[in-house]
Write a structure and sequence with these properties.
Distance between the termini: 135 Å
Low-confidence stretches: 8-15, 222-236, 403-408, 583-594
Strand content: 25-35%
Radius of gyration: 37 Å
Number of strands: 28
Largest sheet: 8 strands, mixed
Shape: elongated
Helix content: 25-40%
Strand order of the largest sheet: 1-2-6-5-4-3-7-8
Number of helices: 17
Number of domains: 4
Structural class: alpha+beta
Length: 626
Amino acid sequence: MSDQAIDKEKSTLTVDESDILAMSEKIRQNQEEDRAFAEQLDSFLKRTEKSSDFLHIGKTPNALAILGADQKLDVVISPRTITKCMAEPEEHYHGHALSQSIMEQIPQELRNPVMIFKGSQENSLVAITELKDSQNRGVMIAVSLCEKNGFSEVNRISSVYGKDRIENYFRKQIGQGNLVAINKEKTDRMLHSAGLQLPLENTFISFDNSIAYSTANVKRVSEKTQELTGGFKMALLTYIDQNTRNLAFMDTEIQKLAEATQKKADALMTRLQEQGLSTTSINRNGEAYTDKAVVSVEYATKYNPKTKQKEPLMDKDGNPVKSVQAAIRHTDGKDFTALIFHAKEDISDGVKFSAMSAMKFEKNQNGKMSPTYIKGVDIAGSEKIPQELKNIAAFAKENILEQEAERSTSFAYITKETKALAAENPVVDRLSKAALAQTNEMMQSLRSNDLKTTAVNKDGKVYAPMAAVQVQPAMQSKTINGKKSLIPMTHWDGSPVHSIQATIRQDQAMLILSAKDDISKGVQFHGMAVKTYVQNENGKMSPTYIKGADIANSPLVPQNLKDIATAVKETQTKEKQQETPQKSTTKQRSPFSRARLNETAQEIRKSEQKNSTEKSQQRKKDDMSL
């Protein structure tokens, strides 16, 4: 732009003369950004080996800043986006065939767009330009706000393209209330040519051509502006990570979870700010900044020890389980730490952060960054966690986390295999829930008497593991056609017998408590054994079982498991004594014993024979009377 052009721009600005010099400097800065981007683009297009580095458009313009975009951030575009925007459709999937001349005008059009709409994704905007592509379609620019780029953040141009039947897009977006800002003069002209008109002026922000250099002539509407731009100002506290956004394009459920979780995370961050709790991080340039919370929703996985790979985790209906998280992060420019809040994917009652953990990235022996995971209960005492995050964790534990009190009183859990069976078998569901309640009560009693087992996690931290409850069909060995086979055990009425077990682990040893599936009087653990592993002659670890009567004297059983076994046995003995009635001289038999069933059958046959004889005699009497 020439000096004459600058003077022309100045003459149209309705501002005080004292501001003209500042605006003149802004105009020259805009010119420099335009020139620098054009040179970057030209250099990129001429290179045979394409770089993966972002191309810089310039600083965030006023037109985006008035909607809540962080003006300190750079606006960038990736080489991949440039390639897609400029490629022909037959050369690239959904290529937009834009010319180099069109692409070079992106900075100018972003500074003074015709209209701006809310984007289809959270924290995104769509700017309508005056540009036309080769097919005379109106060109749109989509911008994703506050995206992470390493340790810094950027406002990234995610796409530039010509829109088919753009007047239909205007009609739909305006009708849905997604119009958030306009250049009044340009918009009137464009909508008039499309046979459309603006909604009431109190539903959007308006500006004139001076928006490229100043916000002095921006017309705001207080209440409506806050409502319209609230989604974008949320980016000052939280944002949804790029991977989640990509998944949301293909999975509407992930999109719903992400949006709901972001609202919850924003409320969390607001509450923390009210308490003066925040994190101050240092970027690579040594500059301090307050980091934002990042929301992620992804498909949960589980580690398969056989394949040594992660596999998708599925629910009872075969649908992928989703992991829902919000992380508050801290970095000192070298190490990176995150405080992670976990929520369940069932948001029928709203998103609930029910647990938290921490993760720290440090350089390992090979000089690579590797993660270390810290459980929620260990955060306060961990030397790896910055004090700022510890303060947030302490406040969240008392005031934010939901259902935490319920979780902290749980000393047992139902195994995944049993849960899978329970989802399809109501008997297993009833038995496992009853066994869980009984086991939890037993474990609570044991711990109150300082009887517990210990384990060590990957970080070397000692913790008390929970008891595992398992319910499954009982099997028995039977020889069929000369071969031994395992077949399901059944009750006298043909119903399957179920095995109920509660396992308490100590290192390689497991104390296994067994109960019958007759829970009419509650779950009663009647037997016990210890399973442990010892090295065999081939140097491999093989399982060994110790019967209940031998546990106390076995050198293979850890002392704390012996103490627990003794306590459980004493409790069982007392319960039997309380339940055993006074002995009678007449031996009592179960109404369902085999002998009793035979006696009943004989009584029925005798009764039928007696009735048959009586009927026969009666018929003879009747014949004689005739």
